[in-house]
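TASK: fixed-backbone design
INPUT:
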């Protein structure tokens, strides 16, 4: 399996799914826009509201997974990555992933206290295609 092909596949997806663990140890899945920034298969950056339920869950338990998929007419491809999610509020990171139009969500701009960054650091993954799965480590 070619990890560069997996990176290209992820870049083409418009939607991603992030998973957190709640206070009762149940997984919670949420659809998100694609990551704002990606560094290889190791680091992914998402924007979100500091006040969100998900932020509290990640602060309490950083174990996380993210998932990308594409369903074609015949072929289904899925990529699941496991790792840790950090909640970042430093201005440098917020500035790094800020996009034009974000004021629609964060009225006070890049310094809005309700704007933060979720940084996912992957440790391993699982690839599914053509009824076959393959696990892999991320270094």
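OUTPUT:
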């Amino acid at each position: 399996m070619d990890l560069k092909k997996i990176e290209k596949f992820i870049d083409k997806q418009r939607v991603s799914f992030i998973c957190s663990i709640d206070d009762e140890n149940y997984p919670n899945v949420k659809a998100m826009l694609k990551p704002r920034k990606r560094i290889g298969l190791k680091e992914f950056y998402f924007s979100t509201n500091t006040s969100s339920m998900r932020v509290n869950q990640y602060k309490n338990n950083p174990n996380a997974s993210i998932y990308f998929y594409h369903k074609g007419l015949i072929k289904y491809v899925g990529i699941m990555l496991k790792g840790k999610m950090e909640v970042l509020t430093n201005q440098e990171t917020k500035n790094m992933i800020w996009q034009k139009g974000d004021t629609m969500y964060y009225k006070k701009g890049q310094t809005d206290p309700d704007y933060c960054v979720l940084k996912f650091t992957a440790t391993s993954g699982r690839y599914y295609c053509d009824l076959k799965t393959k696990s892999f480590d991320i270094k």
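COMMENT: The two ends are 15 Å apart (CA to CA).
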